From TrEMBL, chain A:
NCBIfam families: SoxY_true_GGCGG (TIGR04488). Gene3D superfamilies: SoxY domain. This is Thiosulfate-binding protein SoxY. The lineage of its organism: Bacteria, Pseudomonadati, Pseudomonadota, Alphaproteobacteria, Hyphomicrobiales. Residues 43-152 form the Ig-like SoxY domain.
From TrEMBL, chain B:
Residues 1-26 form the signal peptide. NCBIfam families: thiosulf_SoxB (TIGR04486). This is Sulfate thiol esterase SoxB. Keywords: Hydrolase, Nucleotide-binding, Signal. It comes from Ancylobacter rudongensis. Residues 396-534 form the 5'-Nucleotidase C-terminal domain. InterPro entries: 5'-Nucleotdase_C, 5'-Nucleotdase_C_sf, 5'-Nucleotdase_CS, 5_nucleotidase/apyrase, Metallo-depent_PP-like, SoxB_N, TAT_signal, Thiosulf_SoxB. GO terms for cellular component: outer membrane-bounded periplasmic space.
Length: 154, 564
């Protein structure tokens, strides 16, 4: 069994999709977060502590099929023992109105530090994950997801 | 696997590429002296032959299809096949201008050469070639695979939801296919085809939305020529973005590279001596993928309609590009030794309809399949006053005709037409039949809408579509060519990032810049939205052509391209 705690950053409103050509072009422009906003959130959590690349596997589509429900699978490499485990994983989206997507907290009893969720992405942007290990070390990973307003057949 | 020294370029058709005898080939074809034997001449290697068709777009009869004169490669694909056209293409492959290969593979002097060399393709001609190869190689030594977009693109396929082509593929003895436009017949129909068809429908990269379970068989093992061949299917990964998602609401696509690697590894573990990816990714995506997924011997590419007379090699993986609309079939002979591919020989066989005797059984089947629609198919609506073609990164004259039809028939200021790669070509002087119109418009979401858009919104749409084609990373590309526009002109700088490519939007009627905040009446078709209202596009085009009688359109000068 996998223990998960999570905090959805925003209520999903499952309305009409905006992925199509005209609908998206006609959608109102939102005030969107920036990379700086994500950096500010991280500073609140961890101050200026350095973060290393690695350990985190972010599985995201290169292009979202539906910006309203973009699947994210996250998997952090760890033995998950009492002496060495993943304490928390935070996910941010730097182009959403609110950058926080979800926070997972794990214990050694979680067995593995892996989780899946679907999130809403307002536009093409980076998804950033940060993992806090039990020894205090921080790891980060980033992936771009393209949210398109419409392709043309082929 | 395959080493470079085994790389043998078999010349197209008769293997005379280097001998300079292609002119004679042409004369022979017109004089009726040449038979399918010349096209079929092939020095066999090993005991296994793989035959590949792709992107037939349900063309039962021979047609004209002009290859693109603009096909821009970006990023690592810049200046490489398949992004070479016309003179550059001929120089790269050492093909003489004015001959049958130049006619089949480029747009140069198309109208004239089409008169000399005739239409290409046709299910009955393809059947003749396939039967002959099976007879020569032995029934149990040939694997026939189709790369998708076979069941859509004609009036009869639209009316029968692909059933006409299912029967043709069945009669050809197809072993397996993948999908893209097939999905626009909707979930239920695709499932019905998968259940009933006498061939496998493979796709490793489609999952059920809710449970992430595989929707289709991912791969199938075949035994041919004494070897075990694993064929893995890869459906067009961007189907729910490029085409209506609401028609397949429960299916999720994507590239799924890691899952593909697992499929390759499992196939090898199960004893596969040859691993083939039957792909509808598009060429540039497959080229990148070939460098990242290990252990694939052959990628049979599709989707981007490229016809290449020689394979492209990425490491030890062979990439084959068979063209579209039945103009070509690919023959790949593999020499399998000690459980792996030791050598190969490849030929891109041109399906010159005048040179190949129709297979009588297939000809009878095609006649039967078309009979219910004969009156519609044969209805002459008008005449082409100039070459009418579609394929190319930007506007083609056939699409300009469609845009003109929308501007006129829907009283719009601006028209948008999708950048589909499929649809035949008409020579100047050809009748414009309803069939020719349907060959460029026969889709399951044909409504022509009329909407109000600001100049800024139009620019946003153009920027978004441009990034789907010209993003430097092929994994971020999707869909077809650039959306075609009527009533406006623009400049595009390919090398810029998204949001900065499009400039100088001009309202052609007045010659004035398009006003970003002003609202314009825009007509378009093939919206991926559900519940779009408007008449089917083929009705508008038929009305427009009937009123115009002779459609004379020069290639547009109102799209200015730079940065390529």
């Amino acid at each position: 069994m996998q223990l998960r705690s999570w905090t959805p950053s925003r209520r999903e409103t499952m309305g009409l999709g905006l992925t199509a050509l005209l609908a998206a072009a006609l959608a109102p422009r939102l005030v969107l977060a920036t990379e700086e906003a994500v950096a500010a959130e991280l500073k609140k959590l961890y101050g200026d502590k350095p973060m290393a690349d690695g350990k985190i596997k972010l599985d995201l589509p290169e292009i979202a099929e539906n910006g309203l429900v973009v699947p994210l699978n996250i998997d952090v490499e760890s033995p998950m023992t009492d002496g060495d485990y993943v304490k928390a994983v935070h996910v941010f989206a730097d182009g959403n109105p609110l950058p926080q997507v979800v926070t997972y907290r794990f214990t050694p009893q979680s067995g593995k530090a892996a989780a899946s969720v679907r999130m809403r992405l307002a536009q093409t942007q980076n998804v950033v994950a940060v993992a806090e290990m039990s020894n205090g070390a921080l790891y980060t990973a980033k992936a771009q997801v393209k949210v398109t307003i419409g392709g043309c057949g082929g | 696997m395959i080493s470079r020294r085994d790389f043998v370029i078999a010349a197209m058709a008769a293997g005379m590429l280097a001998s300079g005898a292609r002119g004679a080939f042409a004369q022979a074809a017109r004089a009726g002296k040449m038979t399918q034997d010349d096209i079929l001449r092939f020095d066999p290697v090993g005991t296994l032959t793989i035959l590949h068709t792709t992107d037939l777009h349900a063309q039962l009869e021979p047609i004209y299809f002009r290859e693109p004169s603009v096909n821009i490669g970006v990023g690592e694909a810049r200046g490489l096949p398949p992004h070479l056209v016309d003179e550059a293409f001929l120089a790269y492959y050492k093909i003489a201008a004015g001959g049958p290969d130049a006619y089949a593979l480029t747009s140069l002097d198309f109208d004239t050469l089409a008169g000399t060399y005739g239409r290409m393709g046709g299910a009955d001609r393809i059947a003749t070639l396939i039967k002959a190869i099976r007879a020569a190689r032995g029934e149990g030594n040939v694997l026939l695979l189709d790369g998708g977009d076979g069941l859509q693109g004609s009036w009869s396929s639209l009316q029968t939801k692909g059933e006409d082509m299912v029967r043709v593929f069945g009669a050809l003895g197809l072993d397996a296919m993948v999908g893209h436009w097939e999905f626009t017949y909707g979930t239920a129909r695709v499932q019905e085809i998968v259940e009933k068809a006498p061939f496998a429908f493979l796709a490793q990269n489609v999952r059920s939305m809710e449970w992430q379970e595989p929707v289709f068989e991912a791969r199938k093992m075949f035994e041919r020529g004494g070897s075990k061949i694993a064929v893995i299917g890869q459906a067009f990964p961007r189907t729910p973005i490029s085409n209506p998602r609401w028609m397949i609401p429960d299916w999720e696509f994507g590239l799924r590279e890691e899952d593909l690697q697992k499929q390759v590894d499992e196939a090898r573990a199960a004893g596969a001596e040859v691993v083939v990816l039957l792909s509808h990714n598009g060429f540039d995506v497959d080229r990148k993928l070939a460098g990242r997924v290990k252990g694939i011997d052959v990628i049979l590419t599709g989707h981007t309609h490229d016809a290449l007379p020689a394979p492209v090699m990425v490491g030890s993986t062979l990439l084959i590009a068979t063209g579209s609309h039945g103009k070509f079939i690919s023959r790949l002979d593999l020499d399998v030794r000690d459980g792996k591919v030791a050598g190969f020989r490849y030929g891109l066989l041109p399906v010159f309809s005048d040179a190949i005797a129709p297979d009588p059984e297939m000809a009878a089947l095609v006649k039967e399949l078309r009979a219910p629609y004969a009156a519609d198919l044969g209805r002459v609506v008008g005449q082409a006053g100039s070459l009418l073609y579609r394929r190319g990164n930007f506007n083609g004259t056939f699409d300009d005709m469609i845009c003109q039809a929308m501007l006129t028939e829907r009283d719009a200021e601006i028209a948008l037409s999708p950048g589909f790669r499929w649809g035949g070509t008409l020579r100047s002087g050809d009748p414009i039949t309803f069939e020719a119109i349907a060959n460029a418009t026969a889709i399951t979401y044909p409504a022509c809408y009329r909407n109000m858009m600001t100049g800024q919104q139009l620019k946003d749409v153009l920027e978004d579509v441009a990034d789907n084609i010209f993003n430097a990373d092929p994994y971020f590309q999707g869909g077809g060519d650039m959306v075609r526009v009527g009533g406006v002109g623009y400049a595009i700088d390919i090398g810029q990032p998204m949001g900065k490519r499009i400039s100088d939007l001009t309202y052609l009627k007045t010659g004035q810049p398009l006003d970003a905040s002003k609202t314009y009446a825009v007509a378009g078709w093939a919206s991926v939205n559900q519940g779009v209202e408007g008449p089917p596009i083929w009705e508008l085009v038929e009305r427009y052509v009937a009123a115009t009688r002779t459609v004379d359109i020069a290639p547009t000068a109102s799209v200015k391209v730079s940065g390529a």
